[in-house]
Design goal:
Layout: E1 3-9, H1 16-25, E2 33-39, E3 55-56, H2 70-74, H3 79-99, H4 105-116, E4 126-132, H5 138-143, E5 145-153, H6 164-171, E6 176-179, H7 182-191, E7 199-201, H8 208-215, E8 229-234, H9 246-255, E9 260-265, H10 271-280, E10 287-291, H11 297-302, E11 305-308, H12 317-324, E12 329-332, E13 348-350, H13 354-366, H14 368-378, H15 389-395
Parallel strand pairs: 1-2, 1-4, 2-3, 4-5, 5-6, 6-7, 8-9, 8-11, 9-10, 11-12, 12-13
Helix pairs in contact: 3-4, 9-13
Length: 397
């Protein structure tokens, strides 16, 4: 009899965690496992890429209330959900005042999820393993019937600023906390040493065949108005990705006489800030935002150098994707950078400070032999991480 696996995910919009989930779903042995996927919302560019073997469970409108504006909920038949969201906002504010803590995205998710939970129906079915693949795992704990329950962690936990009491309540009821890299596991244990025995590492899996096929899609004029070398970054327009400093870094590169155009694919709340920084640095012709792309792989394949200038990461899926497509890669020296690549072998780790970052990029761009060596070394590695799937199978009872 096939073992039953359930994944829980908010949606399938473009993002690193969503790409990671697709890689995992594309690698599972469906002759031995029956896989279901529960989405809070049946939305997102990646919906059509979910493997046909996966049973996408029917939508439950109640779960869609996580992202609906509070005012809209209060003026609808779902007014109770609006009241719950208001209570979440109020409770978090009181907590932060009392504990003298700052709010954050993760903390907000904790309070919203806790307040909405009593109004959410159970997810149908019985499973051998349930996996909360992104976000706070309380729905998995309280609304899923599964023998084993796993919460997935995609980031450096020390930057999340959670309500630790709530985290401890939840993780005490979880069987495993799976982080996407060893440094991420270590960071989690640093915050919650009492859960050391539950903390495991399962790295991102990637479907290399799908990626390479998508990279070969014919696109005309991928890089409009390009001048010199093409630099590329992909990710959400958020504080973590540090794209707001790209204009200053790019300006320093240009001042050395190296001609480059730096393109950024993505979307998010900091687009206005990035555009402002581009204007302030007079980089309108050299730093170009390409916006959201459901298929960024032709762009990665077409660039001269892939750069991930992040302030922090769990394990950037896009860096692995660039390596699969045999691109030289540069990443900044964020806390978990050493787990991302072999510095000097299949990529380069550069300082976080803008000027130093720019100078290291210039050094690399001037050294064609070194660029080619980085490319050559990507052919020697298997970046799919298919062996990580055995770690997941081993959790299933």
């Amino acid at each position: 009899m096939k073992k039953k696996i359930l994944f829980i995910m908010p949606s399938m919009f473009i993002g690193g965690a969503e790409r990671s989930l697709l890689g995992l779903l594309g690698s599972i042995d469906y002759s031995n496992y029956e896989v279901s996927l529960f989405l809070y919302r049946h939305e997102g560019e990646f919906l059509e890429l979910i493997p046909k073997e996966v049973q996408v469970l029917s939508v439950m409108p109640e779960y869609g209330t996580f992202d609906v504006p509070i005012k809209e909920l209060l003026l609808s038949k779902k007014w109770k959900y609006g009241v719950a969201r208001l209570w979440a906002k109020f409770s978090m504010k009181i907590h932060c005042i009392k504990e003298q803590e700052n709010t954050g995205v993760w903390m907000a998710m904790q309070y919203i999820s806790k307040s909405l939970l009593p109004l959410l129906p159970k997810i149908p079915g019985k499973y051998d393993i349930g996996i909360s693949f992104l976000g706070v795992p309380d729905v998995l704990i309280e609304r899923v019937d599964a023998k084993v329950k796993v919460a997935w962690n995609h980031t450096d936990y020390t930057v999340l600023n959670p309500n630790k009491k709530r985290d401890r309540e939840l993780y005490s009821k979880i069987d495993y906390i799976a982080s996407v890299s060893t440094p991420c596991t270590e960071k989690f244990v640093q915050i919650y040493p009492e859960f050391k025995d539950k903390a495991i590492t399962i790295e991102n899996l990637l479907d290399t065949n799908l990626l390479e096929n998508q990279a070969n899609e014919v696109r005309e004029d991928l890089f409009p108005n390009k001048k010199g070398k093409v630099l590329l970054s992909v990710g959400r327009y958020s504080d973590a990705k540090n794209f707001d400093n790209v204009p200053d870094i790019c300006k320093s590169i240009l001042e050395t006489g190296i001609k480059v155009t730096w393109y950024i694919i993505g979307y998010g709340g900091e687009e206005g800030l990035i555009q402002k920084r581009i204007k302030e640095a007079n980089m309108e012709q050299n730093v170009i935002l390409l916006g959201k792309k459901s298929n960024p792989y032709p762009y990665i394949k077409g660039c001269d150098l892939y750069i991930q200038p992040s302030r922090y990461e769990g394990k950037a899926v896009t860096v692995r994707e660039a390596q699969i497509l045999h691109k030289p890669v540069v990443i900044t020296n964020f806390a978990t950078s050493a787990s991302q690549l072999q510095d000097g072998y299949d990529g380069i780790i550069v300082p976080m400070k803008n000027e130093e970052c720019a100078m290291k990029i210039v050094e690399l761009l001037k050294d064609e032999k070194r660029m080619n060596q980085l490319i050559d070394n990507t052919y020697k590695n298997d970046y799919s991480n298919r062996q990580e799937l055995e770690k997941l199978y081993a959790l299933i009872k």
